[in-house]
Amino acid sequence: TGSIVRRTGVAADQKLSANFSVGIEASRRKLTVPGLVGDFQDSNWDESSVQAYTSFLLGKDVSITLEHYFEKFSRPDDPFSIDRFSKLRTHRTPLRIRYFPNSRLHAKLSLSFVRQTGRFLDIDSNELVDGHDSFFVTDFGVTYSFANRQGSVGIEARNLFDEQFKYQESDPTTPLLPRRRLVFVRASLLF
After folding, report:
1. Which of 27, 59, 121, 155 has the most CB atoms around its CB within 10 Å?
2. DSSP code string of the chain
Protein backbone atom coordinates (compact mmCIF):
# COMPACT_ATOMS: atom_id res chain seq x y z
CA THR A 1 0.00 0.00 0.00
CA GLY A 2 0.98 3.64 -0.35
CA SER A 3 1.62 6.36 2.17
CA ILE A 4 -1.10 7.71 4.43
CA VAL A 5 -1.03 11.51 4.57
CA ARG A 6 -2.89 13.99 6.77
CA ARG A 7 -2.39 17.68 6.04
CA THR A 8 -3.74 20.67 7.95
CA GLY A 9 -3.15 24.33 7.29
CA VAL A 10 -4.33 27.87 7.76
CA ALA A 11 -3.58 31.09 5.89
CA ALA A 12 -4.46 34.77 5.97
CA ASP A 13 -3.72 37.70 3.66
CA GLN A 14 -4.55 41.30 4.46
CA LYS A 15 -4.27 44.45 2.40
CA LEU A 16 -3.62 47.10 5.04
CA SER A 17 -3.58 50.04 2.62
CA ALA A 18 -3.35 50.66 -1.10
CA ASN A 19 0.45 50.20 -0.90
CA PHE A 20 0.96 47.72 1.94
CA SER A 21 -0.07 44.08 2.40
CA VAL A 22 0.88 41.19 4.69
CA GLY A 23 0.21 37.49 4.82
CA ILE A 24 0.98 34.29 6.66
CA GLU A 25 0.46 30.58 6.00
CA ALA A 26 1.13 27.59 8.25
CA SER A 27 0.74 23.92 7.39
CA ARG A 28 1.60 20.53 8.79
CA ARG A 29 1.76 17.09 7.20
CA LYS A 30 1.86 13.82 9.07
CA LEU A 31 2.77 10.83 6.94
CA THR A 32 2.87 7.10 7.51
CA VAL A 33 5.31 5.78 4.92
CA PRO A 34 5.66 2.08 4.11
CA GLY A 35 9.09 0.58 4.79
CA LEU A 36 11.08 -0.15 1.66
CA VAL A 37 14.30 -1.63 3.06
CA GLY A 38 15.45 -3.50 6.15
CA ASP A 39 12.59 -4.64 8.38
CA PHE A 40 9.89 -3.14 6.08
CA GLN A 41 8.28 -1.35 9.05
CA ASP A 42 6.13 1.70 8.36
CA SER A 43 7.70 4.95 9.55
CA ASN A 44 6.13 8.20 10.71
CA TRP A 45 7.22 11.46 9.12
CA ASP A 46 6.31 14.94 10.35
CA GLU A 47 6.60 18.05 8.17
CA SER A 48 5.76 21.64 9.13
CA SER A 49 6.08 24.93 7.27
CA VAL A 50 5.37 28.58 7.93
CA GLN A 51 5.52 31.33 5.32
CA ALA A 52 5.05 35.04 5.99
CA TYR A 53 5.41 38.12 3.83
CA THR A 54 5.04 41.86 3.85
CA SER A 55 4.91 43.85 0.62
CA PHE A 56 5.22 47.61 0.00
CA LEU A 57 4.63 49.64 -3.15
CA LEU A 58 6.86 52.70 -3.29
CA GLY A 59 5.19 54.90 -5.85
CA LYS A 60 4.27 53.42 -9.20
CA ASP A 61 7.58 51.86 -10.14
CA VAL A 62 9.16 50.11 -7.10
CA SER A 63 7.94 47.26 -4.91
CA ILE A 64 9.71 45.76 -1.91
CA THR A 65 8.80 42.38 -0.47
CA LEU A 66 10.24 40.78 2.66
CA GLU A 67 9.41 37.10 3.14
CA HIS A 68 10.30 34.42 5.64
CA TYR A 69 10.00 30.67 5.03
CA PHE A 70 10.46 28.06 7.74
CA GLU A 71 10.43 24.31 7.11
CA LYS A 72 10.86 21.52 9.60
CA PHE A 73 11.11 17.84 8.68
CA SER A 74 11.40 14.96 11.12
CA ARG A 75 11.90 11.37 10.01
CA PRO A 76 13.42 8.27 11.59
CA ASP A 77 17.19 7.94 11.25
CA ASP A 78 17.62 5.80 8.13
CA PRO A 79 20.86 6.02 6.13
CA PHE A 80 19.10 4.26 3.24
CA SER A 81 16.45 6.99 2.88
CA ILE A 82 16.30 8.55 -0.58
CA ASP A 83 16.04 12.00 1.05
CA ARG A 84 19.54 11.77 2.65
CA PHE A 85 18.41 13.41 5.93
CA SER A 86 16.35 12.61 9.02
CA LYS A 87 15.96 16.00 10.71
CA LEU A 88 15.90 19.26 8.78
CA ARG A 89 15.19 22.86 9.84
CA THR A 90 15.46 25.60 7.25
CA HIS A 91 14.96 29.35 7.59
CA ARG A 92 15.00 31.30 4.32
CA THR A 93 14.46 35.08 4.30
CA PRO A 94 14.45 36.78 0.89
CA LEU A 95 14.28 40.54 0.41
CA ARG A 96 13.04 41.32 -3.10
CA ILE A 97 13.10 44.66 -4.86
CA ARG A 98 11.31 45.07 -8.19
CA TYR A 99 11.62 48.08 -10.45
CA PHE A 100 9.20 48.96 -13.26
CA PRO A 101 10.53 52.13 -14.96
CA ASN A 102 7.94 51.78 -17.73
CA SER A 103 5.29 49.37 -18.94
CA ARG A 104 7.81 47.23 -20.84
CA LEU A 105 10.87 46.96 -18.61
CA HIS A 106 11.03 45.06 -15.33
CA ALA A 107 14.12 44.51 -13.14
CA LYS A 108 14.32 42.43 -9.97
CA LEU A 109 16.93 41.94 -7.28
CA SER A 110 16.68 39.40 -4.48
CA LEU A 111 18.97 38.92 -1.48
CA SER A 112 18.18 35.79 0.55
CA PHE A 113 19.59 34.74 3.91
CA VAL A 114 19.43 30.98 4.49
CA ARG A 115 20.15 29.00 7.67
CA GLN A 116 19.79 25.23 7.74
CA THR A 117 20.45 22.66 10.45
CA GLY A 118 19.79 18.95 10.54
CA ARG A 119 20.99 15.36 10.44
CA PHE A 120 22.41 14.61 7.02
CA LEU A 121 23.82 11.56 5.28
CA ASP A 122 27.63 11.58 5.21
CA ILE A 123 28.36 9.78 1.96
CA ASP A 124 31.85 8.70 3.10
CA SER A 125 30.71 6.95 6.30
CA ASN A 126 27.11 6.20 5.20
CA GLU A 127 25.94 7.56 8.58
CA LEU A 128 23.66 10.42 9.54
CA VAL A 129 25.61 13.29 11.14
CA ASP A 130 24.63 16.70 12.53
CA GLY A 131 25.39 19.67 10.29
CA HIS A 132 24.51 23.29 9.58
CA ASP A 133 25.26 26.23 7.31
CA SER A 134 24.26 29.89 6.96
CA PHE A 135 24.75 31.95 3.82
CA PHE A 136 23.44 34.69 1.52
CA VAL A 137 22.37 34.20 -2.10
CA THR A 138 21.75 37.03 -4.57
CA ASP A 139 19.56 36.79 -7.69
CA PHE A 140 19.09 39.41 -10.42
CA GLY A 141 16.99 39.62 -13.55
CA VAL A 142 15.76 41.98 -16.25
CA THR A 143 12.76 41.39 -18.51
CA TYR A 144 11.54 43.34 -21.53
CA SER A 145 7.93 42.92 -22.68
CA PHE A 146 7.04 43.33 -26.36
CA ALA A 147 4.35 45.72 -27.58
CA ASN A 148 0.72 44.54 -27.60
CA ARG A 149 1.53 41.81 -25.07
CA GLN A 150 3.06 39.63 -27.76
CA GLY A 151 5.66 38.16 -25.42
CA SER A 152 8.79 38.96 -23.46
CA VAL A 153 12.50 38.25 -23.27
CA GLY A 154 14.65 38.36 -20.17
CA ILE A 155 17.95 37.38 -18.63
CA GLU A 156 18.28 36.13 -15.09
CA ALA A 157 21.19 35.18 -12.84
CA ARG A 158 20.66 33.03 -9.76
CA ASN A 159 23.37 32.76 -7.14
CA LEU A 160 24.89 35.77 -8.90
CA PHE A 161 28.08 35.86 -6.81
CA ASP A 162 28.64 32.08 -7.07
CA GLU A 163 28.38 31.46 -3.30
CA GLN A 164 29.50 28.02 -2.11
CA PHE A 165 27.31 26.51 0.60
CA LYS A 166 25.96 23.31 2.11
CA TYR A 167 22.23 23.00 1.56
CA GLN A 168 19.86 20.05 1.47
CA GLU A 169 16.80 20.49 -0.72
CA SER A 170 13.62 19.28 0.94
CA ASP A 171 12.33 18.35 -2.53
CA PRO A 172 15.24 17.42 -4.83
CA THR A 173 12.94 17.29 -7.88
CA THR A 174 12.32 21.07 -7.64
CA PRO A 175 15.52 22.68 -6.32
CA LEU A 176 15.23 26.23 -4.96
CA LEU A 177 18.90 27.21 -4.75
CA PRO A 178 21.48 26.55 -7.48
CA ARG A 179 24.83 25.32 -6.14
CA ARG A 180 26.74 27.41 -8.70
CA ARG A 181 25.98 30.60 -10.58
CA LEU A 182 23.16 29.98 -13.03
CA VAL A 183 22.54 32.45 -15.87
CA PHE A 184 19.75 31.89 -18.36
CA VAL A 185 17.63 33.63 -20.96
CA ARG A 186 13.89 33.25 -20.92
CA ALA A 187 11.68 34.12 -23.89
CA SER A 188 7.97 33.78 -24.52
CA LEU A 189 6.06 34.60 -27.68
CA LEU A 190 2.30 34.89 -27.88
CA PHE A 191 0.50 34.58 -31.20
Report:
1. 121
2. ---EEEEEEEEEEEEEETTEEEEEEEEEEEEEE---STT---EEEEEEEEEEEEEEEETTTEEEEEEEEEEEEE----TT-TTSEEEEEEEEEEEEEEE-SSSSEEEEEEEEEEEEEEEEEETTTTEEEEEEEEEEEEEEEEEEEPGGG-EEEEEEEESTT--------SSTTS-SS-SS-EEEEEEEE--
